[in-house]
Each structure stands twice: as structure tokens, then as C-alpha cells.
Amino acid sequence: MEQHLGFRGRRALVTGAGKGIGRAVAVALGRAGARVTALSRTAADLESLARECPGIETLCVDLADWEAVEAALGAAEPFELLVNNAAVAELQPFLQVTRSALQRSLDVNFGAVLHVSQIVARQMIAQGVPGAIVNVSSQASKRALRDHAVYCSTKSALDMLSKVMAMELGPHKIRVNTVNPTVVMTDMGRINWSDPQKSAAMINRIPLGKFAEVDDVVNSILFLLSDKSAMTTGSSLMIDGGFLVS
């Protein structure tokens, strides 16, 4: 599919690109001809990604460090495509939520998306080029989940931020959308949902009867980045197998 989506030569930034969905998106964009910069705070992950896809540029920075992010992205060439994928999941019962868990989640799941998007959108506007931003949210933004008070809340905030971004950036020909997956079978997802009793309780609420694979999310992100979705902005694309209708 990638070769038909018009990414060749376009500059793309993917955050949280060391593992899982972000890494798969960076690889797919690279193979589709985009000039990809993969951002992660884990140097070893970026090194292995660079070995897997030698054409991908890497950027090692902690998104919670605004000054470091400003310096790193300010020195980069302007981007036309942005995937805000980096996130943390601090799972605690509501009565046990800690200040540190709350702050880290706000910094990465919400603040970093706002900050990186500001930097990249300003570059797009200064260059006078249209652009597309996809923020990776979650079905947890739409449905309460036990022990997910902070995660659900930050993803809900991300959805609304994305709508406001779409409204304000639309006149500059910059589209902003979210993808909202259910449980995704990344390496970490397989570990966390390997218990049949735990996974059955969730799968029984999904009409399609299965969790999402990484490619399900990657293909949706590529669609929203591409001109195939040229009239789509401010939307949340559910990749949940029907979880929300059950």
C-alpha cells in the first residue's frame, strides 16, 4: 500500500520510534520513500533501528525536556509529516495515583505532543507547505478502564487537543487526526496480555474477537498521513474491532 500514498521525498518525524508502533511506522514510511527522522530517548533502540533501515535518521532526546527538544528539532530540516506516538502508561488505582506518575504522564502523553506539534507546525507554516499530523491516542480515551485513571485522562485530553489543533491549523493546510487503537500486539502487548483469563475479559467485549496487530495501526496512520485522506481532519479513527459499540 505504501507506494501508492505519495510519501516519496517527504520529510517525516516519528516520536517514540524505538519500539512497537512508532518503530513500525518509521520503517513503513522509510520503505515508502519518505525521509524519516526517528525520535526516542533510548539510544540502543535507535541504533538497532538504524541498522535495520540505514536511511532513517535518528534523534535521541527525552520529550519531557522541552529545552532539549527545542534544540534538537530546531536544528533539523522542516517536516511535512508528524506522528506523535511516544507515550507512557502509569497504571495505578485511582486512590493510589502518585504525583510523579501524574506528572510524567502529563509531560509525555499530552505536553510533549503539544510542544513537538507546535515546533513542527511552525516550520510547516514558515515554509508554506501543507502537512499532516497523526496523534496516537487510545480506545482508553473513550471508555473508562480500571487502574487507568491517569492514562485514560491524558488520552482524552490528547483527543481534544487534536481537535483544537485541527481547527486552528486547518487554514494553514495542516490536517490533524488521531488513531485510537484497542490493545495492540506489540512485543509489550503480548507480554501484558498473555494471561488468557485477563485477555478473554477484554476480547469478549470486542465484536471482532481479537486484539489489533501492529500493521492494523500502521496502515491507519499511513492513510491519515497521506493525501488519500485529504478531506479528513479533527477525526478519531477507532482501531478497536468494535469495542466501543459493544
What CATH architecture would you give? Answer: 3-Layer(aba) Sandwich
Number of strands: 7
Strands in their spatial order, largest beta sheet: 3-2-1-4-5-6-7
Relative strand content: 15-25%
Q: Can you give the mean pLDDT?
A: 95
The description of the largest β-sheet is: 7 strands, parallel
Layout of helices and strands:
Blueprint lengths: L10 E5 L4 H12 L3 E6 L2 H10 L4 E4 L5 H9 L6 E4 L14 H29 L3 E6 L12 H21 L4 E8 L5 H6 L3 H8 L10 H12 L10 E4 L7
Parallel strand pairs: 1-2, 1-4, 2-3, 4-5, 5-6, 6-7
Helix pairs in contact: 1-8, 3-4, 4-5
Structure description:
The protein has helices spanning 20-31, 43-52, 66-74, 99-127, 149-169, 187-192, 196-203, 214-225, and strands at 11-15, 35-40, 57-60, 81-84, 131-136, 174-181, 236-239. Helix 4 links the parallel strand 4 and strand 5 (131-136). It starts with 10 loop residues before the first strand and ends in a 7-residue tail after the last strand. The model has no long low-confidence stretch (mean pLDDT 95). With 246 residues, the protein is of the alpha/beta class. The protein has a single domain (11-184, 212-239), classed as NAD(P)-binding Rossmann-like Domain (Rossmann fold). It is built from 8 helices and 7 strands; from the N terminus they run βαβαβαβαβαβαααβ. The chain has a 7-stranded parallel β-sheet, sandwiched between helices.
